[in-house]
Amino acid sequence: MRDGLLRPDDPLEVAMTVTATAQGLVQLYLGGRIGLAEDEFRALCTRATRRVLDGVRA
After folding, report:
1. Could you tell me the residue range of the domain that residue 44 belongs to?
2. Quick check: is 49 in a domain?
């Protein structure tokens, strides 16, 4: 945010949103709720994180 890469917002809330997305996906995966191979799951996490970051990007 300071460098202008992300639009002004509450840094803690943005960090929690990104973290919660990743943590939620990992919990679903480890709980057997996401039936993907590990490499496919990692790709899913990457796409989901990019979507969140696109939402807060300046």
Report:
1. 11-56
2. yes
Phi, psi angle pair for 19, to nearest 5°: -65, -45
pLDDT at 58: 85
Q: Which two tokens stand for residue 15?
A: 């960090």
pTM of the model: 0.86
Which amino acid does the sequence have at 53?
L
Q: Alpha-carbon distance 34 to 53, whole Å?
A: 22
Contacts of 56 (CB under 8 A, 6+ apart): 6, 7, 9, 14, 17
pLDDT number for residue 53: 94
Q: What whole-number distance in Å separates Cα of residue 11 and Cα of residue 1? A: 8
